Amino acid sequence: MQRLFVADLHLDHERPEIIRAFAVFLHEKAAGADELYLLGDIFEAWIGDDAAPDYLQPLYDQLAALSAAGVSLFFQHGNRDFLLGQAFAERIGARLLPELHHLTTIHGKTLLLHGDQLCLDDVDYQAFRRQVRDPGWQCDFLDKPVEERLAIARQLRAASQEQGAQKAAYITDVTPAAVSELMVNESATLMIHGHTHRPCLHTDQSPDGGVRIVLGDWDTHGWYLEMDEDGCRQYAFKLPTEGPLAPVLQDSLAAPR
């Protein structure tokens, strides 16, 4: 069983090199996997399934072809694409995951999440998150014309970038106590998430020695986590790329013996 995990691609027309690199990744790497997990912020902004960006149609087709060929696709919402719905998931052949998903792996009970729900020191963001995750707010937003939704999304994006630049690093990172508490409550030995754009493997994340793997964001490099019977390995590869991937191992977690 080979599982692949990615997050924080932030696919956008302004970054064609990332779109191209993801297409190469799907062709060269994901096509040989059993499962592919998309753990949020795959898209820079998602304003509704009825407004899926047309310029990404080749990627939609690739994902649908992977699913049809037997690769199981899973999508978990991020803070940029929380409005992605069942209609689009069916379009690409993916299964939508809850914001906290339990997975049994060779490392024991594993938790998958985007990660933004653990940034509890960012009080303003958590208030915003509660607002936009409210079903009533989402219904009201999706009822608006596409152009109005696009304008609101641009405003929210600009405000987020401005506010993020003014916050201390610890505020925009996960809260350690929240990580430990969640791992204890869920009896988890491994946690995998993205969001913070700080790829790393962290040990001793809970009283029982839990491990937390933070997925890398796609910017100057693409990132993916690979899990099989030998353990977990996170790789990075330089962008842009049109040819074969040249992944470089960043960190690894060996399977228990």
From TrEMBL:
Enzymatic class: hydrolase
GO molecular function, one term: hydrolase activity
Endpoints of the signal sequence: none
Lineage: Bacteria, Pseudomonadati, Pseudomonadota, Gammaproteobacteria, Oceanospirillales
Keyword Lipid metabolism belongs to the record: yes
Name of the protein in question: UDP-2,3-diacylglucosamine hydrolase
Keywords, in A-Z order: Cell inner membrane, Cell membrane, Hydrolase, Lipid A biosynthesis, Lipid biosynthesis, Lipid metabolism, Manganese, Membrane, Metal-binding
Residue positions binding substrate: 79-80, 122, 160, 167, 195
